[in-house]
């Protein structure tokens, strides 16, 4: 058997081999947050907020106003369906074989009965969404959270989750199988999904980035609470009941994916 078809994939993953051991070493402060890059992070946060005001909000508002809700929901469903194989890969890497079978069945149902994922009959059949990502895989393997970071465009993250994001992009099963222009269509569907999410949860999102006295600190707290809740780790020390409730309901999750 030849490894030629796998060489591009192996080349991509090798880029991260030397980086993995360096992430997750930051020491949290008394508040449970490690933020040694705060000055740089705040700069990127301000840039992202300015970009949201100038571009993302107007585009998402226009998209939500012009495109009918059923069509927006259908396109988001297709995007979500195309992301399921990536979750299956991470389920296997985490040895969660039950979830891997569950997500495989969900993909099969929505890709066929759901007409390529346009509809979501799988949820009605008990095959609800079970996300998994490589940041979670690294956590399962014992890697620490690392320092808090703010990424351009993407927003809040940690060193561990930033590395996980890069690996998820490189190892995306569907993306690696698609050629051009199909790969561009997949990207377009993801952008439409994010625009729809920004439109649907506009009030909640803007209450954090526009109405907070310190939107950077509030976004950092909300993100870390939410992510730690997902992983089953302690939330940020000193977080109030409102922050814990926000984490429990994952209200900002779509903005961090």
For the largest beta-sheet, the strand count, sense and barrel status come to: 2 strands, antiparallel
The whole-angstrom Rg is 19 Å
Give the low-confidence spans: 1-21, 239-253
Helical region count? 12
The portion of residues forming beta strands comes to under 5%
The total strand number stands at 2
Distance between the termini: 36 Å
Structural class category: mainly alpha
What overall geometry do the principal axes of the alpha carbons give? Answer: globular
What is the number of independent domains? 1
N-to-C SSE string, H for helix and E for strand: HHHHHHEEHHHHHH
Helical proportion?
Answer: 55-70%
Strand order of the largest sheet: 1-2
Roughly what is the average pLDDT, rounded to an integer?
84
Signal peptide: 1-17
GO biological process, one term: intermembrane phospholipid transfer
Protein name: Phospholipid-binding lipoprotein MlaA
GO cellular component, one term: membrane
């Amino acid at each position: 058997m030849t490894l030629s078809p796998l060489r591009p994939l192996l080349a991509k993953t090798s880029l991260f081999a030397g980086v993995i051991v360096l992430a997750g070493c930051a020491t949290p402060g008394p508040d449970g947050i490690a933020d040694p890059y705060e000055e740089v992070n705040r700069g990127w946060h301000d840039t992202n907020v300015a970009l949201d005001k100038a571009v993302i909000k107007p585009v998402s508002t226009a998209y939500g106003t012009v495109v009918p809700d059923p069509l927006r929901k259908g396109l988001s469903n297709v995007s979500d369906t195309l992301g399921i194989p990536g979750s299956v890969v991470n389920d296997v890497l985490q040895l969660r074989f039950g979830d891997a079978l569950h997500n495989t069945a969900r993909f099969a149902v929505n890709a066929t009965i759901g007409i390529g994922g346009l509809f979501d009959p799988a949820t009605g059949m008990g095959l609800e969404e079970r996300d998994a990502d490589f940041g979670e895989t690294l956590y399962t393997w014992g890697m620490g959270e690392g320092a808090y970071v703010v990424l351009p465009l993407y927003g809040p993250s940690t060193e561990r989750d930033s590395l996980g994001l890069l690996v998820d992009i490189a190892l995306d099963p569907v993306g690696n199988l698609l050629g051009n222009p199909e790969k561009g269509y997949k990207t377009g569907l993801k952008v439409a999904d994010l625009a729809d999410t920004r439109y649907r949860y506009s009030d909640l999102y803007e209450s954090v980035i526009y109405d907070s006295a310190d939107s950077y600190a509030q976004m950092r707290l909300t993100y870390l609470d939410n992510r730690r809740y997902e992983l089953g780790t302690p939330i940020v020390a000193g977080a109030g009941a409102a922050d814990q409730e926000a984490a429990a309901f994952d209200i900002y999750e779509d903005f961090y994916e």
